[in-house]
Amino acid sequence: MKKRPYSKLITWLTCLSLLVSLSFGILLTDRASAAAKDNSKAKSQHSKVASDLREKTQQGTGGELVDVIVQLSDEMSPQLNAMLRSSGVKLKGRFTNFNFLSVELPASTVDSLADFPEVDFVSLDGEVKALGGHVAQTTGANNARTYATSGSFDGTGIGIAIVDSGIYTSHVAFLNSSTNVSRIVKSQDFTGEGRTDDPYGHGTHVAAAAAGNGMVSNGKYIGIAPKANIINLRVLNAQGVGTVSGVLSALDWLYTNRTTYNIRVVNMSLGMDAITSYKTDPVCKAARKLVDAGVVVVAAAGNNGKKSSGQKVYGNIHAPGNEPSVITVGAVNTLGTDNRGDDTIATYSSRGPTRSYSTDAFGVKHYDNLVKPDLVAPGNKLVFAEAPNSKILQENAALDANVSSITNRKQMALSGTSVASPLVAGAAALMFQANTSLTPNMVRVLLMYTAQQLPNFNTLEQGSGSLNVDGAVYLAKYVRTTLNSSTALGSSLLMIGLPNPQTTIAYGGSNYTFSWAQGIVVANSFAAGPSLISKYQKIYAQGVLLGDGVLLGDGVLLGDSTKLTSDTLIGSGVFISNGTTLGSGGWFCPTGVLLGDGVLLGDGVLLGDGVLLGDGVLLGDGVLLGDALRVAYAAQMTGDSTTMMTINTDSGSDYLGY
Fold this sequence. Notes:
Elements: H1 9-36, H2 40-46, H3 51-59, E1 65-72, H4 78-84, E2 90-95, E3 100-106, H5 110-114, E4 119-124, E5 127-130, H6 135-138, H7 141-144, E6 159-164, E7 184-189, H8 203-211, E8 229-234, E9 241-243, H9 244-257, E10 263-268, E11 270-271, H10 282-292, E12 296-300, E13 313-314, E14 327-333, E15 344-345, E16 357-359, E17 365-367, E18 375-378, E19 382-385, H11 391-395, E20 411-414, H12 417-434, H13 440-449, H14 459-462, H15 469-476, E21 502-507, E22 510-515, E23 519-522, E24 525-528, H16 531-534, E25 551-552, E26 556-557, E27 569-570, E28 575-577, E29 585-587, E30 593-595, E31 599-602, E32 605-606, E33 617-618, E34 624-625, H17 633-636
Parallel strand pairs: 6-8, 6-10, 7-8, 10-12, 12-14, 13-34, 14-18
Antiparallel strand pairs: 1-3, 1-4, 2-3, 5-9, 5-11, 14-15, 16-17, 19-20, 21-22, 23-24, 24-27, 25-26, 28-29, 30-31, 31-32, 33-34
């Protein structure tokens, strides 16, 4: 297996050896200390209770009621059943497909609950919030809809689930342009408010970004998959706030009904602070089960990429974007133009690595430190469908784009990774239409491989690069349809020869040609090379992660020949892109190593296992790495260009060109 650069290997191994020695000594001390204490049971129990729940139970009174999500590893015992029926404890719900429970109980009983052997993990039923242009042209979606030789791709027959604040179903953007019938084939409320419309105003815009039909303004505000079916799963209430249990209920319903509505993609432009490791976070685990069942899950990275002062912040990827099987999307600022050559990463777009963590029996935090986002897409001041009288508009009337005076034709402008995410979801729908046999891992690989690397931004900012719908759909339609988990490693992946790794986007009478990234981000690093699309890799099957067989232990780079062909280049770090292929450019972390247990080795600074020296230590290039830093929406969205795409006033006539 190739590795690069060789000159860094000795430095890395030396630092790793020192780290292992130090960690081993600390671990022995911790173990000895723990063994000497009488509260060893409490310490061992600590790993089964989420850290934020632990903090809440310690700060409150013992009789205070808390809402929790309980993950079970087995059937409930009679003893656990009895506890859940006891005084003061309320079983609020069950999530059949995920073997989870929603429970309200006194804070003083959390440890007793976690003590049952069939209880795998207990976490807070916390708060979930929304994360919140002619993108069809600049992303290449128009190209994909007008292929002359192999038919057009518009999402027909594919179901996209929008897990959000509801949808204003009367908007013309959601009609089938051929039959004038709504493409919103199912609406379900999981907030308890008993409504599926969009009083908050977020979900309507998101749904139109993924699958708006372009009837308004001669197709200028068309979504990526304008004929896809939409499944409206409302989890955010009229204030734009939801709960973990509400999201889990929606995903539980989705898992049960995915084949009924041919749901191949789900978009989640919402998030929570990623505190608990993806290995135990219930929403992450639910997302993983959907991916393993063949559903692509797309999530917004978050809008916490900078302080209110404008300083960059690293390590604020939201959940479920911290889940490795989820396609996590950051935001691009297109500067209001169709030309991709001037695109930049939006300053507010959350950067990796993921800083969610698990806590072992001795109270030591182990950080996930995954490279995220996976890719980025336009997300700054995008114009899509507007829900009338929404809370968002009431708070900021200027968001109305003044496209139309007719209620069900109005458009609004929003910014954030939450409007970048549905563009990727729409792209995935086009890919499934082009080739229904694709697995979620294949979709993710093709999206990343064909993305455009933006110069002067590192992997933790842009992942594999900017969304290229045209390139991803082009490759999707040529992937062999007979591939499965039994296909031999290294078998031909495509039905054609190796394509020219470039895409040309037409805009304003000109053409812009760019190279594909020709690589993918995986776990703590990346993989690159044409074999990723020319040869079948075992990591493309369902039920595995793309990072399987790439990393061994705490950052040790070792390819697994049972999952990856030997000519796959495994990267060894985080690069600042030069705008060509993934891995080309200068080092962001000179030693190039993100270690698995929360240790960032870079810029000459070695941080201990989760120790952040005041939660905001300045690294060598002046950036911040922080776990707890959160900034207000108004502050995080400033500093980017205020320019929008040219506003095209609606004539009032339906455009049926698509």
